[in-house]
Amino acid sequence: MEQKQLHELLYQMLETEMGGVQVYETALRCVQNEDLKEEWEEYLEHTQEHVEIVRGIFEKLRLDPDAQTPGRKVVHHIGESLVKAMKMALEAGDPAAAELVAAECIVSAETKDHLNWELLGYAMKKAKGEVAQALKEAHDKVEDQEDEHLYHTKGWSRELWIDALGMPAVLPPPEEEKDVKTAIGAARAKMARASGPPEAAELVAAECVVHAETKDHLNWELIGQVVEKLSGAQKKTLKEAYEEVEEQEDEHLYHSTGWARELWIQSLGLPAVLPPPEEEKHVKTAIGAARAEQSVKSR
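The chain above was modelled as a monomer; its predicted structure follows.
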């Protein structure tokens, strides 16, 4: 395994968790729903604990937690941008809109955070000795919480948007009620991986595409919900647009997520599947994406 890239991952993990504390603190200024407020308060406590857990890895591996890398600086910039976005929403004076922005910002932050811990899981299987032990201890403490943070918040973001559109929403969302902590579970609740190490810029680009497509995919999912409630010319216009775009948006999100994961795994010096399973299987559904991810985890 490439030790330099493992260290890069750890620096990005620490910065992600530190930025996550600020994201949750700002989001709590935006939240309106009491159930969501309680959940984000819990997730803020988790994230504060995660900062210390990652710092523990740094201490065991004798790394400098204050050292800066180009990738860490990018992560810091993204975190600051999410906080700034929420502050802009608050200043606009629409509490419900600010809550929606906060939910989407947390989904963006938790998407990167979840990827970090997933990659650490791959790395710990290839590491040896004290390094393997340090990674495993941290991963075992955090994994389930990171799954919960991502899947539950994605559910909240979807349902808050549906509510804002004036349609019947499930609040708390199904992900919350079913205590979803797996990708397959999240998909079900929603529905009732070239050789050589990639350049750092390619990794950043892949993650940025995933961030952008997460929002884009949500937009079109919501349009699909709206179409079912409309009639006449308005319904016809939206339905035609939705049917032209729907499968492409599914492909963009699920395939890009697979590419980001596999490029990171390759950069860590681990066996990567490139193109990723999502590409090879031509995945266009959430369950298909979850199954592709499970096939990767079983290697």
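The first helix runs from residue 3 to 30.
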